[in-house]
Every structure is written in C-alpha cells, then in structure tokens.
C-alpha cells in the first residue's frame, strides 16, 4: 500500500509513519521542515524501510498547489501511485481571539483548511485516474484520512479559530465521504482530544487544566494505522474519536440538546 503523510517530521504524522513502515508499506513523508524530517528518518524504526526503498521524503508546504504536484509526482515515480492520503499537517494558536496575532490566525486557516482542501483536490484526481476496477478500490483501496479534532464536536473557547478549522475538516470529510463513494475513495477523519505533541507543548487553555492531556501521538497513530490498512468495505463510520473523553463527547453530542452541549463545553472550556 502506498501512503502519503503530511506534517510527518514529528508528532502524530511521524508516529503513523513508523507504524506503517514497520508493516512494510510504501510511505512518503512530507513536511515543510525538511531538516527536521531528515533527523526523524535517522530513527532505527526506518532502517529497514530505507534499505528496501519503501520510504521517501520531501518538502511540502500544504498551502502550495505546486508543492502538492511535486509530492504526488514523487509518489508516482517511486511507488506507482497513492492509495492512502493522511492529511495530518496543522497548527494551533491558543488564546482569546482579540489577544492573538491575526496573521498567525490567518496562517492557521491556510494550513488547517486550505492545506487539506488543496491536497484532497489534487490527490483525489490521481486516485480516480488510477482506479481501474472501482469495486476493487472500494473493497481494498483508496482512502483519504483527515486529522480533525474533538474540538469539532462543539466550538471551543480559547482556541476558537482552531476549533472552527476542524469544523471545516469535519464538514469537508462528511460531504466527500458521500461524494467520493462512486470514485472508490473512502473519506474519514479522526477526532482526538488533547494530544501530547510539540504542537501542544506550552499551550495553556482551561480545557487542558480541567480534562488533562492524556493521549500520545502513538495513540492517534494506532487509529490512523488501523483505518489505513482496513479494507474499505469494512469501514462503516465517518468520524473516529480517539480516547474515552472524545468518544463520550461525540456520543453525547448526538443525543443532547444544543443548549446542554453548550453548557457542558462552557464548564469545561471557560
């Protein structure tokens, strides 16, 4: 299986790459920080994959259509195509909106929203173009897995633009899950709560103080791996919460009146 991962130099993307490489899949690791990516590849977890030419890495600014074209071309030249796209790249800005840097918030929207939109647009064309037997693809093949968040269940204070960007990811995933069905492409997302990564290091928001930060990058990588290798015919859900709190919140949101959901989030996040 040929898998392209964005934001792969650290955190969740790197953890997922290690798991997939360990099982012999062809993995393309792409990131805007190529030096950091080079350091990450020195990990012994990639030794066998490098020796067997099952891994490649390169620069990818997810907001650049040209960079996506280059990454896709590298995947095609090295592995013959792309079976799975893991849209992992993203950033987080915390704080009450008027107190944060507007340019950084706009960059967040570009990376978290436009980055996934551009990548999905580009990669889906390649997946569709390579799909000879549509039924075979639906059973075994092409997937787009987006990194959403438990903050896409209900808008969160102190990270409102980040939360909104994950609502974008959620909405795009839901729509494309239906739209891409006839193309043989399964589109799903994963929705973790707070995860201990470089992105969340030093972040201070009320919800972390009240709920804690218990998930690791590998916890999320386990879910990504399972979805990536599971035949499409066995994937029935669109959203995959990671961790017990996220599963509880997602379940309650399906049956709880919005006023109560808002009250719960107010108590947790402010």
Could you walk me through the main structural features you see in this protein, from its secondary elements to its overall organization?
The chain has 270 residues and is α/β, with parallel strands linked by helices. The protein is 51% helix and 15% strand. It contains eleven helices and nine strands. The protein has helices spanning 11-22, 34-40, 47-51, 65-79, 102-130, 134-140, 160-179, 206-211, 217-229, 244-255, 258-269, and strands at residues 2-6, 26-31, 55-59, 84-87, 143-147, 186-192, 195-196, 215-216, 239-242. Helix 1 (11-22) packs across helix 9 (217-229). The termini are far apart.
Helices and strands, with pairings:
Layout: E1 2-6, H1 11-22, E2 26-31, H2 34-40, H3 47-51, E3 55-59, H4 65-79, E4 84-87, H5 102-130, H6 134-140, E5 143-147, H7 160-179, E6 186-192, E7 195-196, H8 206-211, E8 215-216, H9 217-229, E9 239-242, H10 244-255, H11 258-269
Parallel strand pairs: 1-2, 1-4, 2-3, 4-5, 5-6, 6-9, 7-8
